[in-house]
Design a protein that fits this description.
Order of helices and strands: EHEHEHEHEHEHEHEHEEHEHEH
Largest sheet: 7 strands, parallel
Shape: elongated
CATH superfamily of the largest domain: SPOUT methyltransferase, trefoil knot domain
Radius of gyration: 20 Å
Structural class: alpha/beta
Helix content: 25-40%
CATH topology of the largest domain: Alpha/beta knot
Number of domains: 2
Length: 267
């Protein structure tokens, strides 16, 4: 069981892992340098620990100690007990879910390991918003996808906001980054996947037609602003569109992923 340590000074250096959580650039630098990530809320903390991530420490208000007692008892990581007002001073926002954990990152698995046995895969190119990445992983996990591959510039699935939006799906759905962005889609085709790009290209067909009867499918989604690059759009085996009305030609990438995952899961 980790030691319970009451902290009353927001400048206490032991709280460094939890400082300034709204500063995205600072957090990306700090988390990469120290190999950590944060989980927020009881459910997400439980899922992160259950997935095998080693806690560095916990930060929580007194009322959460009993709720997470079983988790705290299984680990030697210190438990910093703070008032909710002090937690807000340290993190920069109101921690309404009451509990935070700092956990060790693990090395990313190779693409081969993530794709082993997979039939349905999501491939993301330059999706830079953490909320969108978290929502896409959540949809993929909920609708039976087996893996997610991210281009080098995609937002970090282990960033606190992404983890929170995904409700811990980042711990259950295998994912990794693509080491070679340029040849990613041909490489997937060579592995037996039919790559289906969600795009407004002139030759795009309804997504239900594009995925019908396929065994191994890789749905390919692009960035929030410009969508897929010309390279990935042209390299895909098929191009697909979600038919729409009322003069609207596209959905937010997270919403589009949910629709496409639903259709693909029922192919």
């Amino acid at each position: 069981m980790g030691e319970r340590i009451e902290v009353t000074d927001p400048a206490d250096p032991r709280l460094a892992d939890y400082r300034d959580l709204r500063d995205v650039e600072l957090r990306k630098h700090l988390e990469a340098e120290h190999g950590l990530f944060l989980a927020e809320g009881e459910k997400v903390v439980r899922r992160a620990v259950a997935a095998g991530h080693t806690p560095r420490s916990f930060l929580m208000a007194p009322r959460w100690l009993a709720r997470l007692a079983d988790v705290l008892e299984r680990h030697d990581a210190p438990v910093y007990v703070v008032s909710e007002a002090l937690a807000e001073q340290v993190t920069g926002f109101h921690v309404h879910r009451g509990a935070l954990a700092s956990l060790e990152r693990r090395p990313l698995p190779p693409v081969e390991e993530v794709l082993a046995g997979a039939r349905s895969v999501l491939v993301l190119e330059d999706v830079v918003d953490h909320t969108n990445v978290g929502a896409i992983l959540r949809s993929g996990a909920a609708l039976g996808f087996d893996a997610v591959l991210l281009s080098p510039r995609c937002a970090d699935p282990l960033y606190r906001r992404a983890v929170k939006v995904a409700m811990g799906a980042v711990f259950s759905l295998p994912w990794t980054r693509l080491p070679d962005w340029a040849t990613a889609l041909p490489d997937l085709s060579a592995r037996g996947f039919t790559t289906v790009a969600l795009t407004l290209a002139p030759d795009a067909v309804p997504v239900e037609d594009a995925v019908a009867g396929l065994d191994q499918v890789a749905l390919v989604l692009g960035s929030e602003g410009h969508g897929l690059s010309a390279r990935w759009e042209q390299a895909a085996d098929r191009r697909a569109i979600i038919p729409m009305t009322a003069g609207i030609d596209s959905l937010n990438v997270a919403a589009a992923s949910a629709v496409a995952c639903y259709v693909t899961a029922r192919r």
